[in-house]
Amino acid sequence: MSDSASQPDSSEFVNKLAKKIEGISDTKGIKKIILDSPDSTAEMLHGVVSARAGDFVKKISGVPVQGFELPEEVRNLMEQMIQTQPKIVPENTVAGTDLIRKVPEEVESALNQAEFEKNNFIDVNNCSLFGVSVNFSKRDDVKAKMNEISKFIYEEDNKDLIYYYSDAGVNFYFDENDLVNEIEVDSKYKYQTTKGLKVGDPLETAISLYGLPRMKSAKGAIWDKFSVLLHDRSDEIRLIRLKVRG
């Protein structure tokens, strides 16, 4: 991100980050320090904050960081988190250099939150949710994860082909080998896909985010790794299903 073509995007991202994260009250000066003096930023970060948060700030500042690459999904989630933060703090044209130290601390928190959100968001590309993946995870993996999330507990000897977790709005379907072969979410599932699709969106949103489906009807649409079902006589999504199709 150090080339000139990517600099405007870095500037915009830093500006959003500085404006929206709670506890930062001097955003314009922070932005100026980060973007105008990356070497100084890197020096101030050394030994003050975690390597992960420091590398992230240096990365968006245009400072080369050996071996550091922020996953696209995490960056997208951080963008969403920043855009939905309710607090907007005023700008101040004068900033002390100690203020820059606050940024990586908040970035570290945001990165941790983004990692948490990433597991809870529907990952269509990897056909997974909560770290449970279609055609790879087994029944015991579902139990272990959902015991942390849902009040519904399935006994060890339970071999039902479907596990319903109605309080979380998630159902898991199993094949004869105890592998997860489909994951379904409904309106009680409170998150979305990594690209931003959620139950309740119109079908057009799914198409704009994921392209034209393999099949489409009045009941829903099917892509290679997921499908959506619609409400009767409505274009609104009522279910999202993860399933790999050959």
Q: State the secondary-structure class.
A: alpha+beta
Radius of gyration: 22 Å
How many helix segments?
A: 8
Output mean pLDDT.
Answer: 75
Largest sheet: 7 strands, antiparallel
Order of helices and strands: HHHHHHEEHEEEHEEEE
Poorly predicted runs: 1-10, 21-38, 87-97
Global morphology:
globular
Total number of beta strands: 9
Helical content band: 25-40%
**What is the topology, as strand order, of the major beta sheet?**
3-4-5-9-8-7-6
The end-to-end span amounts to: 37 Å
User: How big a fraction of the residues is strand?
Assistant: 5-15%
- Number of structural domains: 2
Characterise this structure.
This protein has eight helices and nine strands. With 246 residues, the protein is an alpha+beta fold. The chain has two domains: 4-120, no CATH class; 128-242. It has a seven-stranded antiparallel sheet with strand order 3-4-5-9-8-7-6, with helices on one face. Helix 1 (7-20) packs antiparallel against helix 2 (27-36), helix 4 (51-61) crosses helix 6 and helix 5 crosses helix 6. It starts with 6 loop residues before the first helix and ends with a strand. The relative contact order is 0.11. Residues 1-10, 21-38 and 87-97 have low confidence and may be disordered.
